[in-house]
């Protein structure tokens, strides 16, 4: 069972998310612009630009693939850091995106042996293969950096073994980005889940005094010389899209500073994080907070920009490829991991997606 001291970290792997706004009359309307141009422009002043990992979202993935294929992007960026690939297999990824022939049985471990067992890696594979294709025509190669901690599943025998790796899912990539990107004078697009990209942790009520509260962005910005340009993507169907955003062209990008959208309480965008629960860390224990204790924070203090890819209700999720469902070894191993390390709802989700009967795990 997951210990209470790490509930914040576990929730970050499970949630997206409704209400409440504090706005200033001095703030104006946001100005939507073409997003690829804006993101490339952000690299003129920032070494790290961070945007939402698709987590199965088809529209986000399509946008990211169009971004990395744009010649302006490849001229401005050195590295792409992705959440859903294991750093244990970084060498195989490096050789593959350079054009080397790597047997798929070796390479697939990079996206299948992820710390989070319900991450199937389908879109990570697509991203890595796309970068290989882009590199084929470049003299200066893009590098894909796997951000997930280097778990060795053959040595995971208990929930406690697994939990130690879960607890590294912000500190490990933050250190990796520092060493592999910033210390080398390189620029990187960081593709991570939105919870990891917060400046201050909403689940801890914005109290950043404990290790459980830290995010990839907060850890990077402990260095005063580092400012991550982080982008929030409007994808959550449980959150009402601001009226002014619904009139934007698809796709659109807008900076938040000095806007009504930026002055809005972050909870209006992230109400689903933690299933509407916040915690205080007291004597090493997580204590749920009453609603009246919740702090507010302007969106512009959390994120620098919004990416709009259409109404969240129009979003679609990728399906599991038939070939994976027909791979009996993969399915059996995945179901066993999900049974042992959850979330358990994903056991039945995988069975349903692959047309397997409910009940016993093969």
Question: Could you give a short description of this structure?
Answer:
It is built from 16 helices and nine strands.
CATH architecture of the largest domain: 3-Layer(aba) Sandwich
Q: What's the domain count?
A: 2
Rg result: 20 Å
| CATH topology title of the largest domain | Rossmann fold
Q: Kindly estimate the percentage of residues that lie in beta strands according to DSSP.
A: 5-15%
What's the number of helices? 16
Element order: H for helix, E for strand: HHEHHEHHHEHHEHEEHHEEHEHHH
Query: What's the arrangement of strands in the largest beta sheet?
Result: 3-2-4-1-5-9-6
pLDDT average, as an integer? Answer: 91
Low-confidence stretches: 1-7, 12-21
Provide the structure class. alpha/beta
Overall 3D form: globular
Q: Measure the end-to-end span.
A: 23 Å
Portion in helices = 25-40%
CATH class category label of the largest domain: Alpha Beta
Main β-sheet description: 7 strands, mixed
> How many strands in all?
9
Keywords:
single chain; 362 residues; alpha/beta; Rossmann fold; 2 domains; seven-stranded mixed beta sheet; two-stranded antiparallel sheet; 16 helices; 12% strand; globular; disordered N terminus
Write the layout of secondary structure elements.
Elements: H1 7-12, H2 35-42, E1 48-52, H3 58-68, H4 71-76, E2 79-86, H5 90-97, H6 104-112, H7 122-135, E3 143-148, H8 159-166, H9 171-180, E4 188-192, H10 216-220, E5 229-233, E6 252-255, H11 260-263, H12 267-270, E7 279-282, E8 285-288, H13 299-302, E9 305-308, H14 322-325, H15 328-341, H16 345-353
Parallel strand pairs: 1-4, 1-5, 2-3, 2-4, 5-9
Antiparallel strand pairs: 6-9, 7-8
Helix pairs in contact: 3-7, 15-16
């Amino acid at each position: 069972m997951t210990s209470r001291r790490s509930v914040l970290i576990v929730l970050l792997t499970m949630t997206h998310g409704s209400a409440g706004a504090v706005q200033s009359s001095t703030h104006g309307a946001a100005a939507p612009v073409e997003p690829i141009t804006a993101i490339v422009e952000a690299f003129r002043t920032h070494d790290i630009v961070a945007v939402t990992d698709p987590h199965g979202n088809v529209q986000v993935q399509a946008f990211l693939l169009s971004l990395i294929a744009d010649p302006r992007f490849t001229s401005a960026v050195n590295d792409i850091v992705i959440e859903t690939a294991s750093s244990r297999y970084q060498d195989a990824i490096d050789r593959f995106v350079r054009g080397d022939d790597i047997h798929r049985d070796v390479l697939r471990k990079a996206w299948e042996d992820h710390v989070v067992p319900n991450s199937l890696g389908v879109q990570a594979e697509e991203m890595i293969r796309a970068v290989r294709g882009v590199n084929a025509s470049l003299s200066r190669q893009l590098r894909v950096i796997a951000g997930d901690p280097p778990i060795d599943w053959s040595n995971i025998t208990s929930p406690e073994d697994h939990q130690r790796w879960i607890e590294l899912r912000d500190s490990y990539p933050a250190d990796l980005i520092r060493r592999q990107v910033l210390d080398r004078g390189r620029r990187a697009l960081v593709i991570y889940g939105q919870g990891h990209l917060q400046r201050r942790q909403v689940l801890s009520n914005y109290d950043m005094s404990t290790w459980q509260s830290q995010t990839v962005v907060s850890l990077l910005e402990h260095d005063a010389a580092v400012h991550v340009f982080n982008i929030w993507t409007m994808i959550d169907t449980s959150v009402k899209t601001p009226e002014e955003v619904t009139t934007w062209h698809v796709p659109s990008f807008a900076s938040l500073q000095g806007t009504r959208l930026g002055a809005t309480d972050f909870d209006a965008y992230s109400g689903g994080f933690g299933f509407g629960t916040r915690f205080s860390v007291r004597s090493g224990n997580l204590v749920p907070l009453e609603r009246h204790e919740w702090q507010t924070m302007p969106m512009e203090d959390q994120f620098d920009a919004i990416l709009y890819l259409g109404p969240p209700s129009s979003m679609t999720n990728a399906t599991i490829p038939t070939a994976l469902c027909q791979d009996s070894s993969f399915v059996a191993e995945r179901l066993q991991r999900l049974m042992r390390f959850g979330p358990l709802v994903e056991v039945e989700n995988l069975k349903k997606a692959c047309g397997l009967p409910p009940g016993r795990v093969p």
